[in-house]
Amino acid sequence: MTTNPSIGSQIELGLRAPLLKKLDGQFRVAKDAGYRTALLLDQQPRPGSHTVWLGGPTTIAAVANGIMRNHRESNPKVLDQVWLRPALPTSALEGPSVHLLIA
After folding, report:
1. Is there a domain that residue 2 lies in?
2. What region does 34 belong to: left with phi over 0, alpha with psi -120 to 50, or beta?
3. Is 45:93 a contact under the CB 8 Å cutoff?
4. Which terminus of the chain, N or C, has fewer Cβ atoms within 10 Å?
5. In the predicted model, is pLDDT for residue 81 greater than 50?
6. Rounded to 5 degrees, what angle do the CA atoms 12, 98, 52 make?
């Protein structure tokens, strides 16, 4: 838990450990094997999930980029692309279809 009330700090607290685990595990293995890699950060909750991303796409992109930038300072780059699917629906009749390339 963080004592910093900013949304960015709260998102970083929840995103840092799982993202670093992916970067040092699954993505590193794939990159070492010669594959291109991509990560999709999806703000849409899975059916039955009550997870809510409080931050907007700009905040999530900034936090994810900061974590990845810190990781690259002492590790080789393991991600070719990072995409974000925002939670904001494009219309009342459909879910979001807009994906943002953020890194």
Report:
1. no
2. left
3. no
4. N
5. yes
6. 40
What is the CB neighbour count within 10 angstroms for residue 60? 24
Backbone dihedral angles phi then psi of residue 42, each to the nearest 5 degrees: -110, 115
Give how many domains the chain has, as a whole number: 1
The span from the CA of 92 to the CA of 81, in Å, is: 29
Whether 62 is covered by a domain: the verdict is yes
The whole-model pTM stands at 0.76
Range of the domain at 97: 7-101
d(C-alpha 95, C-alpha 59), whole Å: 21
Distance CA 59, CA 35 (A): 29
Place of tokens 């291109």: 36
Q: Report pLDDT digits (tens) over 31-41.
A: 999 999 999 88
For residues 102 and 39, give the distance between their C-alpha atoms in angstroms, rounded to a whole number. Answer: 10
Tokens of 58: 């700009």
Residue 41: inside a domain: yes
In a domain, 1, yes or no: no
